[in-house]
Amino acid sequence: MGADVRAGGVGRPLNSEAANGLADSTGPLSIHEVMSMIKHRYPLLLIDRIVDCVPGRSIHGLKNVSRGETIAATKDGLPRLVLVEALAQVSVILTFKTLRLQPTGNELMFFAGIDDGHFEGSVRPGDVVSLYSEIVRLRKTMGWFRAAACVDGRTVARMSMLAAIQLG
Questions:
Q1: pLDDT in tens, 38-61
Q2: Do 132 and 60 form a contact (C-beta atoms < 8 A)?
Q3: Where does 3-166 sit in CATH, by number?
């Protein structure tokens, strides 16, 4: 995981299995599995694949930035808000896996806030962005996450995020 995400620890595990390091990893998730949980489609789907997910703990996803993406076509590279949205999307998948929810299309997660957001450097076409999110706390209707985006081992964004959850 990115150094900034690990710096404060993994947060509070949701159960004793996670606390003892016994939480099972889901392993990689394909783009089809991602699309079953995130209703956005290109160009707003910002995750290309999930490398690993440990429900109740953390997730690691990837975003490949290509020159043809209209969302990345700025002189300064990928806009910071796009990094925030990509981190929110991996946090949604982590929430679904943690709560063992099968998406029906009626569930909604609302981005409710960001704290301690730090952005350094830029993300350019050709970069592969590693997206990390950890659960700090998760309730039935609210989730707190610590997240970071890294390119070539350097952190380009890190933040604490809050999301409201509406189950349908």
A1: 777 676 788 999 999 999 999 999
A2: yes
A3: 3.10.129.10
